[in-house]
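Appendix B.2, paired examples.
Example (i):
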Amino acid sequence: ATKLGAYDFLEKPLSLDKVVLTVKNALKHKRLEEENVQLRERIKANYNLVGSSPCIQKVRKAIKAAASSNGRVLITGEPGSGKELAARLIHLHSPRKNKKFMQINVGAIPENLIERELFGFVEGTFSDYEKAKKGILSLADGGILFLGEIGEMPLGTQAKLVQVLDENRYEPLGSTSPVKFNTRIISATNRDLKTMIMEGKFLEELYYKINVIPIINPPLRDRKEDIPDLIAHYLQFFSNRDGKKEKSMDKEALQGFVNYSWPGNVSELINVIERFVIMVPDSLIKASHL
């Protein structure tokens, strides 16, 4: 019965205390399950690829294909074009969706610390006071690791990563015992890796390892027909999130949004919409607010 889904079983003779405790635990377990489902629904609402332009439909199709596989993915695109969003959507629709999604921004970590973060280290490697630390490759085991701005990775670490991806195992710093892992790698960059390869700044071998499934995120200026949909979606999203009355945008203001070049891409547009929801007291956003 428990294999078929029963929460627990009680043996006779029944104890009232045991019955009450078991029922309380079962109800708590059920509530946690329901909260987990609600949380997943909220996460899905947050990670939404808005738009119907041909280029965004192409991205949506690529994400769907990538999600159903275990192949490594390389997402390229300008800053703010939604590379992390694409990675999270792959995770949400993949067989690994119930496992961890972990991320690391390679460009934000000092060169001398990147291998510590990726591979971890054993106790006493750097000082007598530092305890052992697991690498993020192990922490994400069974799930997905998102390597943001992989073009910033030092060449020495790139060479090490090539071997790690070949063998699906690595040695923590200071250790000679290999650690196996089953982590799917999704990488992203706003750099031109092919140019970096010619300049000797990126290893060609690593490029082919991580670029099994390429996804190219278009800049917002190439999908301006999506801007009205993005505005409507995020006006509603931030109004609901912040408990504000829903706002709309008049034609003149909307045209201003469409005419703007959006150098920060979708991220910039989202920030502007959030600012308007918070700062504009009126229910209609007009050109004067811009």
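Example (ii):
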Amino acid sequence: MHDVLELVSSTRRINGSVQLPASKSISNRLLILEEISSGIVNGIGYSDAEDTQILQQLLHDKSNLAHAGAGGTTFRFLLAVLASTPGYEGVLEGSKRLMERPVAPLVDALLLAGADIEYVDKPGYAPLRIRGKQLHGGKINVDASLSSQFITALLLIAPRMSAALELIPQGDLISAPYIHMTVSLMKQCGFQVLQTDSSILVQPFIPIHKIQIPVERDWSAASYWYACVALSEKASLQLPGLTIQSLQGDSACQEQFKKLGVLGVETADGIELQKILIEKTDLDFNCLTTPDLFQTFAVTVAGLGLKASFTGLQSLPHKETNRIEAVSKELSKIGIRCTFDSNGAFKLDASQIDPNRVLIAETYEDHRMAMAFSPLVLVLKKIAIRNPDVVRKSYPGFWADIRRIGISFAEWNG
């Protein structure tokens, strides 16, 4: 694919059916449970996302120099697995950006459980030198203010520890639904997990009866199609296999998108997206439990010419890119005023959006930037996406699906 992909829509009407990918979040968790249970747990229909494919390969190889790519879950989940695998010795690294993302809370907790891990270069960051051991569990405080992935990584390997692991989250809990997803999956598979308001207790127990868990369709991916419907004049869009009741926290987008003019109606085959009338008013979004939806919501609000305030964005500077700064910079190119502060509060005023602007959206090596900005093809005179292949990280078929709803590509000529 070209370095710059121009999107073209001759009409603001979209229709079609999109077969969403399997959930990357569920797939990655089930892969770890499959590993620690020696195959007793199996997922059916794993995601084809690059992050999931890399994790699956690294779990199989257990190389003494493991490169996790750009995936946060890939790196953090694998770190926990390798640290709890007796006899493993090696170095775990990742992409340049991943090695700028903090990992100290997870390393600290693993060390308290008996792990042998050293920082190769800068303390608090990858790469890491790991010598796998039998971990002993215990009662451990974990900083939960940067990422829920630290807690999830520990929960997933806890059943192979020699004693029960009790985790006490510290600070403001980020992305709590992802932790609930982990606990629910583990219980569904037969692991012994008890979650209270202040702690999560996992017993050292591996189920003995084989269980297969079908992987849900991905709600994070669904959000981009909700955005397309919101920015269209008329739409008929089907999302087969998607269910309103879901383990995934990002299924909350269906309620938020009602504010933006989209109703999801469950059918026998999945979910049908319908446009509904909305009152144009200032909006508020708290993304503390759904930070991965921030870009999609912000761009949709912008395309509708509305004003909105966003809170709960504390984790976004530590993602694939600083997502607050990236969104602000790209939206400002089309006349949208954005302000934000160090506490994770973001305000957007799109009342002066200029639909005649041409936008080349930078993606900053972030898959969600590419997909979140694409629906603006239904609003702007001309839009192109730089480095479009970045979507492979979570949704390799995204551009093929864009075509299925009536949007085409052109050779970029400036």
